[in-house]
Amino acid sequence: MKARLLSACILSLALGGLAQAGQAMPNVAQPYQKSFNAAWIKVTEGELPVYECTHVIGVAAKNVEQSTTAEAARQAFKACYVDSAVRYSDAFFKLHQNDKIGDDGKPIGCNMYDRYLNGHVGSMVSQVPKFGFTAEGLNEEILQRINEVAASCQVRLGT
């Protein structure tokens, strides 16, 4: 009886972990999947998905003008702008000891993180209005969703 209960607990924890891992990457429509999957791999490795998101946004910019594909295009754009930035933030501070606290009381990776994250949003900001978003709103969402270590850098996006 105890063995069954223990097995059931282990199985439910494992399945719960898999479900959470599967939910981490946002779903995007078929025209964006290959490039967004590649972007997700990049950010998971602590690298920004410059080329991958450029492709997603290029396709989305064409599709956002059509009523049947507009919402999927908006979701794909937001996934590259916001979700990939949040995922990048998690990975960046786990790599190369970027999360270690420096003499200034902040993680040692903060300066590079600030430049890279601002570069990421800056590369897409000109397209934001086309998708019906505001840069301020998207930037605020990123800052609200980043982890505690990344937030301690007090990055100001769009400056």
Question: How would you explain this protein's 3D organization?
Answer:
The chain has 159 residues and is mostly helical. It is 66% helix and 0% strand. It has 7 helices and no strands.
Output the keywords.
single chain, 159 residues, mainly alpha
Structural class by SSE content = mainly alpha
Average of pLDDT = 87
Gap between N and C termini:
61 Å
What portion of the residues fall into strands of 2 or more residues?
under 5%
Rg over CA atoms: 18 Å
User: What is the approximate shape?
Assistant: elongated
Please state the oligomeric state of the protein chains shown: single chain
Number of distinct helices: 7
What's the total number of strands? Answer: 0
Give me the strand/helix succession: HHHHHHH
Biggest β-sheet strands, sense, barrel: none
The poorly predicted ranges are 1-23
Helical content, roughly?
55-70%
Secondary-structure blueprint:
Elements: H1 2-24, H2 30-44, H3 50-63, H4 70-94, H5 110-122, H6 135-145, H7 148-151
Helix pairs in contact: 2-3, 2-4, 3-4, 4-5, 4-6
Offer a concise description of the structure:
With 159 residues, the protein is mainly alpha-helical. Helix content is 66%, strand content 0%.
